[in-house]
Structures are given as C-alpha cells and as structure tokens.
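Good morning C.,

I know you're traveling, so I'll keep this short. The sequence:
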Amino acid sequence: PLYFVEAFIMFGAALEFQQPWSLLIFITVQILQFCRSAFEERVLEAEYPEYREYKGRTRRFIPGVF
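The tokens, ready to paste straight into the viewer:
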C-alpha cells in the first residue's frame, strides 16, 4: 500500500502541473520505486526467512492485483 499511495500522490502532482516534464518525473520515480521494492524484498528475504511466505500471499504494489 505504501508504494501505491506514493504513486498516487506523484500522479496527482503530475496532473497539477500538466507539463511534459512532470510526466517524465512521474515515470522516473515509478521506475525507481520498482527498483527500490525489488531491493527491499531481497534484503527482507535475507534477514527474515518467513518473509518469503508473506511475499507469496501479498502483492507488492496494489493489494490483490500487482
């Protein structure tokens, strides 16, 4: 849910400015968020073995979807 809310806020900011650069910033931030989440999952799996089970039943960005 944290990643989804951050994306929602960034999308709102991009809509507010309605400029091509704001869309570029939004896309860049989303790519970085994806990389960040992949890194965080690797760290959590290494530190907490039970995280793998949690990851299997929980979605990364949008609960129940993706």
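Safe travels,
E.
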